[in-house]
Design brief:
465 residues, alpha+beta, Uridine Diphospho-n-acetylenolpyruvylglucosamine Reductase, domain 3, Alpha-Beta Plaits, five-stranded antiparallel β-sheet
Length: 465
């Protein structure tokens, strides 16, 4: 069955696009999810896919899905492998659809401020392409240099400059996708439409379960003429939260707004004595100058001290440094970052309970958090845990327990269990707490309608998939 499928794919696409080499299969067994790396380190790696298929165009993707749908063969879309929640875990009976060869800049339109890309386009390369024309996408995830624009859509991503520029759903103009039966659809037209439900949201956050994103058109901005930075130090997290709330609810929208607890503040800068708060301000000169002054005045009114602004400069220059999980695992340490969100009246309790629970874990080296995305009604928290385990056979159990503690603390106070990394496998069991049983049932019905044979990325997002 598997060889017959590989033969069909090769006949349709050509042998060069279907790869069964050990190196290709091994390199795409999983994404950047810590649990997958723990399994590799512990000597219990997962299987490889049956083959890797590298489509060069939309027609290739359509051909792959028509063949696999007819044979009811699982398909795992693979962007650039930067996901961190288990969105990609290979199975021996599955086809790994590597989208990285679909990496063209389709068009840049400086009049309408639009740019179209193949879904496999590297995010940093996409930004560089529009920057050459004095424009910006304004979407800066930490993974920008190792993620794809299609992956941004599939995971409902958020960037570091989101407070002013919005998240990916605020930036996307239209989405081109191939449905599980091979049909091609383009979702989105014009700057806004009231043409029934916004079907773009079927693909936003779909994590490869409803189809394959093949193209993306993003709404751009002109590059800002001025950038300024400011930094402050709050005596505690609650005071800092209140200060950030005053900033955003007063109408100011610094693209970057970040607050670190005491532990993370000291890690960021040894001079810190309490909770650092960093802002980046961008836009027309008059707007930036007014915002910097207004934020400083709000800090003064809140009793919050000014901190050295070079802390922000340091963060800007190092913000996309990504650690190697294996470096920590080799030292017997299991760790991860977990992002959640909550309203202003709930966020402090989420922080208190989650960090306290993490710090009670035996061998805990770090149980801390910072905020990185600011909204009128609340903000997110980015938790970090690191636990000294030693015994590789216990690492995954400890890892799962730390995740559980954060999920349960967030759920107990009515927070959202994922801010921007998605659900994948690590959060799948908690999705009903997020959507409710009726919401999960609705998602299952949508999945069944679009993918009745269940071929698209099984095991991801939907509980018991």
């Amino acid at each position: 069955m598997t060889q017959a499928l590989i033969d069909d794919l090769s006949a349709s696409l050509g042998n060069a696009k279907v790869d069964t080499s050990e190196a290709a299969l091994d390199a795409r067994r999983h994404d950047y999810w810590v649990a997958s790396h723990v399994r590799d380190f512990a000597g219990t790696p997962g299987p490889s896919a049956a083959c890797v298929v590298r489509p060069a165009n939309v027609a290739d993707v359509q051909a792959v899905l028509r063949i696999t749908n007819a044979r009811q063969t699982p398909v795992i879309p693979f962007g650039l492998g930067s996901g961190v929640v288990g969105g990609v875990v290979a199975a021996s009976d599955a086809i790994l659809l590597d989208m990285s060869a679909m990496n063209a800049v389709r068009a840049i339109d400086p009049v309408n401020l639009l740019a179209s890309f193949d879904a496999g386009k590297n995010g940093l390369e996409a930004e560089q392409a529009v920057a050459a024309q004095g424009l910006t996408i304004g979407h800066w995830p930490q993974s920008i240099a190792v993620s794809s624009v299609g992956g941004w859509i599939a995971t409902r991503a958020s960037g570091q400059f989101s407070t002013a520029h919005g998240n990916i759903e605020d930036i996307v103009h239209s989405i081109e996708a191939v449905l599980p039966n091979g049909d091609l659809v383009t979702l989105g037209k014009g700057p806004r439409a009231a043409s029934g439900p916004d079907l773009r949201h079927l693909m936003l956050g779909s994590e490869g379960t409803l189809g394959v994103i093949t193209g993306v058109t993003l709404s751009l901005r002109r590059a800002p003429p001025m950038r300024a930075v400011s930094a402050f130090e709050a005596p505690d997290m609650r005071t800092g939260f209140d200060f950030q709330r005053e900033v955003i609810q007063s109408g100011w929208r610094p693209p970057v707004a970040r607050q670190y607890d005491e532990r993370e503040s000291r890690r960021l800068d040894a001079r810190a004595t309490a909770c650092l708060i960093l802002f980046v301000h961008e836009g027309p000169v008059a707007v930036v100058e007014a915002e910097v002054a207004a934020v400083a005045e709000l800090a003064r009114q809140s009793g919050i001290a000014t901190a050295p602004s070079d802390i922000v400069d340091h963060w800007l220059s190092h913000r996309n440094t990504v650690p190697s999980w294996d470096m920590f695992l080799s030292r017997g340490i299991v760790l991860d970052t977990v992002e959640v969100a909550a309203d202003w009246t709930k966020i402090a309790a989420v922080y208190d309970d989650a960090t306290a629970s993490l710090q009670s874990v035996e061998g805990c080296l770090a149980g801390s958090a910072h905020s990185s995305h600011l909204y009128r009604s609340g903000l997110n928290l980015y938790f970090t845990f690191a636990v000294q385990v030693g015994d590789a056979s216990r690492m995954e159990a400890v890892y799962t327990d730390c995740w559980r503690r954060i999920m349960e603390a967030t759920n107990a106070h009515g927070g959202s269990l994922s801010h921007h990394h998605g659900i994948g496998r690590v959060r799948r069991a908690y999705l009903e707490r997020e959507l409710g049983p009726t919401g999960v049932a609705l998602l299952r019905r949508i999945k069944a309608a679009l993918d009745p044979n269940g071929i698209m990325n099984p095991g991801v997002l939907i509980p018991d998939a």
